[in-house]
Amino acid sequence: MSLTDKVIIGVDVGTGSARAGVFSQDGKLLGSAAHAIAMNKPKPDFVEQDSENIWQSVCQSVRDALAKSNIAANQVAAIGFDATCSLVIRDANNRPLGVTPGGGDNWDVIVWMDHRAVREAEECTKTGAKVLEYIGGTMSPEMELPKLMWLKRHHRQNWDKMGAAYDLADFLSFRATGSNKRSCCTITCKWTYLAHQDDPWDRAFLDQIGLDDFPGKAGIDRKALGVGDLIANLSEQSAAELGLTTDCVVGAGLIDAHAGALGTLGEYLDGNLDERFAMIAGTSTCHMALSSEPRFIKGVWGPYFGAIAPGLWLNEGGQSATGALLDHIVAMHPFSHAMGRDAHKFAGEKLLHRMMETPDLAPRLHVLPDFHGNRSPLADSEALGVISGLSLDQSEESFLDLYWATACAIAYGTRHIIDALNATGYEIKHIHLSGGHTASPVLVKLYADVTGCNVVMSDCAEPVLLGSAMLGAAALDPEGGLALASRRMAGKETIHAPDQTAKDAHDRRYAIFHKLHAHRQELDAMAAG
User: Fold this and answer.
1) What is the DSSP letter of 410?
2) Where would I find the Carbohydrate kinase FGGY N-terminal domain in this sequence (predicted)?
3) pTM of the model
4) CA distance linking residue 8 with residue 21, whole number of Å
5) Residue 226 has what DSSP assignment?
6) How far apart are CA 356 and CA 354, in angstroms?
């Protein structure tokens, strides 16, 4: 069997499940499978997982995907991993260490959404360190350094035992190969590693926050690999667990959203990226733009060098609650309680035809979507949502109007982020959309109409898994690298163009959106005295 006849596996570990997809080398999805992951919430703001449970879910997903694809173990040439930016803690003998005093040692993962380290994140921000310029000026409690600070302060016993700390994607690569090599993506985006510098750590900053010893203690004190670089072959143990062979190579991994960006933008890595950005949209939304030069944008994470592809800088915006906000609107409206069917599907069926006929369905109803804070571009985790224009109406019409106005607000939030990007050198004309929002014709149309951009969607059903498979393909061909591998595997696309007849209505509503931001800020100041 020639190398070109072999297949590549992409693994995606999300918040609630591990998924695996088997791909041909031209990017065709041959089969996929998923298995749930256990989660522990011992107290408010604490969210934990079990790394061995995650690994077992990965192994089962890979085995099931192979079976569905009718692919034998010796046909798999490479594998790539992506995962949430969760923190894994291990001792010097690679045994799990619990992350909460009084909890079991099997709960050795602080999940990305865990907010136990809010105080520590604020302390990081107050240092004013230069390295903060590379994360939009504000440290998030969802990044790894505040979590490590919390662990050192509140679980000193296990901190002292710690022999390694991993971003979850790096842990999966380690578990697969036995190699401690780290990906440029994970440690640049979540650990304040400056990949473009000879000395990538801001030692003065680490000293200020009490983590001067952490790079060595976490096993992270060596140069990171480029995304998709060869890590090693599978170890005998992991090959047996995954149902593969030791001939299978592993490429350096990605954070899950970044894999989605690669899966949708990979074809364009050698092109004019200033005109394109990736939007990975589900419960929340990540916005990722790539450029050949660093761009510093207040309230937008980055610039991160090499975080998605070698030689390119990443700026990363986001909205903390998008799909989750629509779920909340559905849950709070009385009409949806008696509906007896999927409210999102119902709204989509009813609204799309109306949107074709009337660009503004609710002229006096307006929403600010910051119900879980504003990640970008305001970087205000304390921001709150606003609904202006409610009446006592509890009818179907009232529900549809509120659903539509909320969907508009989500799209205006994306336009707000695009405006911030375009003010610093980008010229965004194409939104490459992946995630759950691709299934909503209402959101797809609004993203196009509100921003004036083409919405581009991959015909591949699993672009995040495709992005991970591209990592394996790059590891197979170090000479061609990630750009060639991703271009070869990129799928066909469907383009949704904006409706120019809706432009004036959305421009007017977008101006009101900004007025609401200003009024909320004024009211918050008055309330604070």
Assistant:
1) H
2) 7-263
3) 0.93
4) 8
5) P
6) 5
